Each structure stands twice: as C-alpha cells, then as structure tokens.
C-alpha cells in the first residue's frame, strides 16, 4: 500500500515537472501545427471562418507562378549560401586555429561578432554600404564591372548580394563549430604525420578533413535548414523584388496571410515549406552520414 | 622549424588579419558614418578614415525615436523568455532523464521531432491563436510563441544523464524529493551548462525578428530589431542617423559578447552538440 502511494506521489511530481513545458508546447506549438494543417484545406481568411475546399489550395499552388518562382528562388538561395558559407567558415576556422592566445581570441571575436547582431542592423549597414549613389562599395563594383550597380534593384545581382550579406552575418556560427571540431582532433595525429614528413596539404587531406567530416556534415545540414527558411533579410532588403526575382516561400506566406488575408492559402504554402524542410533535413542527414562512414 | 615554415606562418597570420579587417569593415564603416554630419556622409571629399566626432545623429535618435521603449521591450521580453525557457526546460529534462512515468519516451520523441519543425511555418496559426486570446500587441503575445526551445531540453537531458547515480542516494536517504534533487544537486552541478543555454536563448530572443514583427502593431510595443526598421521610414535616407540607431540597437548584446566571449563560444559549441 505504501509502495502504491509512493508511486502515485512520484507520478504527481513528474507531472508537475513536465507540466510547464508540456502545456506551453500544446498551446503555442502543437495546436497551431494542427490548425495549420486543417486551415490549409479551407478557403478561410486570416481571421474568421471559411469553407472546406479539399486539395484546392494545393492544386492552385502548382499553377501559381509566384509560388514556382519562390520555390526556385529558395533553391537558388540555398545553392548560393550553403556550400560557400561552409567552405569559407572552414578556411577561417583553419586560419584562426593556428593562432594562439589573445591573437586567436581577437580574430575569433571579429569573425563571430556579426552573428550576434539583429538582422535589421545587418540589413541597414549593408544597404548603406551598397547604396547606389553613396555606397562605399560602389567604387569597388565599378572597378570590377565598369559601372556602379543598384544591387537590390537588379534581378541578376539581388540574390547573390543577399547571399553575401547572409554569409557575412551568419558565418561566425559555422566558424565556431569548425573550431570546436578542430580542437577535438588529437594532437598526436598531427605530430605522427609530421614526423613522417607530411606537408600541410597532406596533413589537411589525410588527417583534418576526414576527422572533421562529422562537423562538416552538421554545418551543411544546419545551413540547409536555416537558408530554406529565409525571410528576414529578403523582406528588409528587397521585399521580394525587383520583378519578384527574390521572392521566397516564407515571404509568400507573409503576403498571402497578412497582406491579402488568405489564411487558408497561406497555410497551404507554410505546410509545403514545412514538408520541404523536413524532407530535406532527413534526406541530407542520411546522405551525409553515409558519406562519413566511407 | 625551417625558415620556409616560419615565412609561411608569418604570411598566413598576416593573411588572417587582413581577412579579419575586411570582415569587420562594415561595422567600422557604420561607426564612422554615424559620427559624421549628414552632409559630410554624402560629400565627395569624405574618405574612409575617421574625420569627425559629431554625436548629433545619436542625440537626434535618442530624442526623436522610441528607442528607449524598444530597449525596455527587448530586454523585458528576452529576460522573461530566457528565464521561462531555462526553468521549464530544466524541469522537463530532469523528469525525462531521472524519473519513470508513462509517456516519458513519447514526450522525448516529441521534443526531438519538434526540434526539426521550422517555427516560422507556424506563424500564421500562432498569429490567429494570439489574436483569439487578445494578446496581439502585448508582451505576452511576443513572448508565448518563443517559449518552445527544444534544444534546451535535449542538452539538459544529456547532462543530467551523465550525473553519477551516487549523487542521488545521499539526498534520497535524507528524505529529499525530486525537487530537492533537481535544485540542490542537478542544477548546481550544471551551472556551466545553465549559463551557456541562458546566453544562447537570450541572444536568440533578442535577435528574433519575424514573430515580434507580426505580433506588434504599434511603435511603442516594438522590440529593437523591429523598431529600428521604423527609423528608415521616418527619416528617409539619412545614413548617419540610420547607422547610429543600428549601432545603438546592436550595442547591448555586442558589449555582453565582448565581455563574456569565452562563455558565448562555449555556449554555441555545447548547444550545437559539437562539444559536450
């Protein structure tokens, strides 16, 4: 009998411990997630009731030009950021990892600092840097391309420029992950290889790269997921323009829901975005794990 | 070390700091711009070197915008979010790690799965929910959807799992319950991880843009990242002022980072699982 009350008491304690998280989770995460799925099958406005329309929203998506453009731009943006930022972060981490003491702390602080800035600070600074008339980078662009370019008003320049700004902003996080990975590689490996007369290139190819692969895989996966969710920089720098050449899915969710009052349709787009991200992250993780085992 | 190696090392170090100088240049340039008069900013003669120390733009920003309310909103919401996320996450992780109750595995599975869910995909229905509850344009409305940070539970669970079982027994023999265990044993043993997770959560909450942008409708309720975009609309193209408000907005976290650099570095590494 005493055992039973003890057990019951433990149950009550456990329940009280998990309750704050579980209740908040149910309210602001689970319920909105379920409602999102339901809403995506209706034609409801943002606020108010609508009618069940079956798969209409999804079939409409397939012929929505703006959606296809957004999908393509999301892919293009991933292409422009994921591998470049991983490569740049690895180079910077290798450079910083050589340094010692306060020099290392200084270099790390410089490369990491942009990461802790709010996104709007980043976009304001770069808008000024790249201002068509007075931007400090325009002479540099003019030097290489013969003339100044209004980068955020040019359909060819806009995505690469947003990608560059994004890399500048978020790269420090990846640098830190790589540095952690480099520190985990035992020093003896390098010493042994150096005794055998290995060159820098050989050290990197035979020791660093294979042992760092799990971290590289992690960075690639995290970046992929992060960059598919792009909204802030695009909204603040270009609002999707010019001529929708930087429109992305989350921006479309925002427009449909909050500007056009199409709650149902916006939910359908959000659901597709969610499925794309989930599918890619599972797929990529599996691929990278397989790559790491070889 | 051969002299060639030494030469190579020198070149690499110089290269590193040249790259660092390029990397920091945008912030340097924002600072130089913010210290100039608006006329000087757009004049042809102004070079890239500092030449003026004119605080006019800063004074103008502090007087003529809601910057102070934005600070208060940002600090208030970020502190509440951080505290709630850490305490609720720690409690939940302790129960999952140290107690036996039905649904334990399912709960942890849900936590792991929600780690994969992009919260941005939920903004539409979160907005509807907050609107139904009448919380749009309130602190509660800004805070509530940001309280789910599954990584906190995942990290805490790993660390609680690693606490030796003998640590429990002394407390249990003295008649201490699970709350005593959590707050007198497990928490003090993991202060390092608690500050690390706190720092990460705070930075994330402070920098959050999309949700506060949707949840707030009037300028006095805005957080820093949302508020400073208003300055753009209010002033048009006055870059000295735009740069000074940007730098003022960035300052608190930037200073905190420079002071706690080591801790932040560690925090990022721990919370992403590359160092345990």
UniProtKB/TrEMBL annotation, chain B:
Domain ABC transmembrane type-1: 71-260
GO biological process, one term: transmembrane transport
Sequence intervals crossing the membrane: 12-31, 70-94, 106-129, 135-156, 185-206, 238-260
Keyword Cell membrane on entry: yes
Leader sequence residues: none
Alphabetical list of CDD domains matching this protein: TM_PBP2
A GO CC annotation given for this chain: plasma membrane
Alphabetized UniProt keyword annotations: Cell membrane, Membrane, Transmembrane, Transmembrane helix, Transport
Family assignment from sequence similarity: Belongs to the binding-protein-dependent transport system permease family.
The protein's name: ABC transporter permease subunit
